[in-house]
Write a structure and sequence with these properties.
By secondary structure, the protein is mainly α. The chain contains 6 helices and 2 strands, in the order ββαααααα. The protein folds into 2 domains: 30 residues, no CATH class; 103 residues, no CATH class. The relative contact order is 0.14.
């Protein structure tokens, strides 16, 4: 069984993530909802080390929903954050806000542009709060 692109009308395979003709995303983003409360519990139990894994997952999932193949993947984002002593992590928070806002427009999901909020939270050392907000937006896109 096949479906058709909402943008150009081209017939596509059911498992296609983007239209082969125009490149429009199909909504098959293959991300799963994550329980934010359990993520916070893991963060506390591991004395914050879970945030490294969470950053990788958030990056990969946001790249998936925004069809962004040019940005750094999760592993590189973590490496850049470690190498720059957290400076890239501050930029990463801002970039995630912009990326999720654009992904929301692509998938017709109401996601506000929280990039400045994420940036301020990261500057004040509250990246865990922005991680929760980013995960909440990703959970909206996973529906």
């Amino acid at each position: 069984m096949s479906k058709f692109c909402a943008k150009c009308g081209k017939e596509m395979d059911d498992t296609a993530r983007a239209c082969p003709k125009c490149g429009a995303p199909t909504g098959n983003n293959n991300i799963q909802k994550v329980d934010i409360a359990m993520s916070i519990v893991f963060y506390v139990i591991t004395c914050g080390f879970y945030s490294f894994y969470w950053l990788v997952c958030l990056t990969n999932d946001s790249n998936s929903v925004s069809n962004d193949r040019e940005s750094a993947n999760g592993g590189l984002a973590l490496l850049y954050t470690i190498i720059t002593c957290g400076i890239y992590g501050i930029y990463w928070n801002y970039k995630m806000g912009k990326k999720l806002y654009e992904a929301g427009k692509i998938h017709n999901v109401e996601i506000p542009d929280n990039s400045v909020l994420y940036l301020v939270l990261a500057i004040f050392g509250l990246s865990i709060v922005s991680y929760c907000l980013i995960q909440s937006d990703l959970n909206k896109l996973a529906d």
